[in-house]
Structures are given as structure tokens and as C-alpha cells.
Amino acid sequence: MLKLTEWQSQLLNSKATSALKNAELRDLQQAIKNLENHLTSTQNNKEEAEKENTLDELLI
User: Fold this and answer.
1) Where are the annotated segments for Disordered (predicted)?
2) pLDDT tens digits for 16-57?
3) How far apart are CA 56 and CA 54, in angstroms?
């Protein structure tokens, strides 16, 4: 009976650890998405600024 209780305890600990790691993984995935979105936005803003500068130079 002691072995069964020990095994059940280890299983519960393993499930808790797995849930924690899954939550950490989801947080990291969200952080990556946020950084990708920020990078895309920054690149788009830079491209727009370059287009505006080119148009300004053509008008001068």
C-alpha cells in the first residue's frame, strides 16, 4: 500500500510539474508572438518612413 501511495504522489507531482511547464511554454509562445508583431510593426513603420523620405526628395 505504501508503494501505491508513493506512486500516486509522484504521479500528482509529475502532473503539477507538467502543467507548470505547459503554462511557461504558453507564456514564452505569447512573448514570441508579441515580439514578432512588434518587429513587423517596426519594419512596416520604417518602410513607410523610407517611402515618405523618397517622395519628399522627389518633390524637392
Assistant:
1) 38-60
2) 999 999 999 999 999 999 999 999 999 988 888 777 777 677
3) 5
What's the predicted TM-score (pTM) here? 0.67
Q: H-helix or E-strand containing 58?
A: helix 2-59
CA distance linking residue 4 with residue 6, whole number of Å: 5
Q: What is the DSSP string of 2-44?
A: HHHHHHHHHHHHHHHHHHHHHHHHHHHHHHHHHHHHHHHHHHH
Give me the residue label for grid cell 509529475.
14
> Rounded to an integer, what distance in angstroms lies between the CA atom of residue 22 and that of residue 19?
5
